């Protein structure tokens, strides 16, 4: 994952509610699968293993967020377990074709969550974050963004 992608995900996370967080995690997973493929194309097995670990950690985060007291949650867990099995096969065989199954499942789920995300009117998970204003000046990566700090205490309040 590039530095710019990390910054973009971080900015999205600071303003996301719980449904939007799931969409962000799906985007992160799709980015990691792309990175895994690139590492294998480049023949960099060490970097591939690091990206596989990142991918597993993202799935662990997803699995920890599922409410298993309802049938939908149990079905999601089954899909996530299938994906982690595919990741393990990709890892043990150094074969990116298994990641296609992961991408297919996650892309479908992401599409569903994108449809319901606008219906979730809950507040952002993180409170007390900096306000970011996109300006009219541009840098090599796109628009410049200025952060205005309201207080010295940011993020989660204890």
How is this structure best described in words?
The protein is mainly alpha-helical. Helices cover 63% and strands 10% of the residues. The protein has helices at residues 3-14, 18-42, 45-64, 71-93, 97-116; strands at 131-139, 142-148. A hairpin with a 2-residue loop joins β1 (131-139) and β2. It starts with a helix and ends in a 10-residue tail after the last strand. The relative contact order is 0.14.
H/E element string?
Answer: HHHHHEE
Average per-residue pLDDT, rounded, comes to 83
Instruction: Name the structural class.
Output: mainly alpha
Strand order of the largest sheet: 1-2
Shape: globular
N-end to C-end Cα span: 31 Å
Quickly list its features.
158 residues, mainly alpha, two-stranded antiparallel sheet, 63% helix, 10% strand, globular
């Amino acid at each position: 994952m590039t530095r710019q992608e990390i910054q973009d995900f971080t900015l999205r996370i600071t303003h996301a509610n719980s449904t939007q967080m799931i969409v962000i995690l799906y985007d992160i997973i799709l980015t990691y699968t792309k990175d895994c493929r690139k590492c294998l194309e480049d023949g960099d097995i060490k970097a591939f293993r690091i990206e596989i670990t990142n991918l597993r950690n993202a799935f662990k985060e997803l699995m920890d967020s599922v409410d298993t007291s309802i049938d939908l949650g149990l079905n999601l867990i089954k899909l996530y377990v299938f994906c982690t099995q595919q990741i393990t096969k990709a890892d043990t065989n150094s074969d990116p074709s298994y990641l296609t199954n992961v991408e297919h499942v996650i892309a479908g789920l992401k599409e569903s969550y994108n449809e319901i995300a606008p219906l979730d009117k809950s507040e952002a998970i993180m409170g007390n974050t900096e306000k970011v204003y996109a300006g009219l000046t541009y840098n090599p990566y796109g628009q410049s963004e200025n952060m205005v700090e309201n207080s010295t205490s940011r993020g989660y309040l204890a």
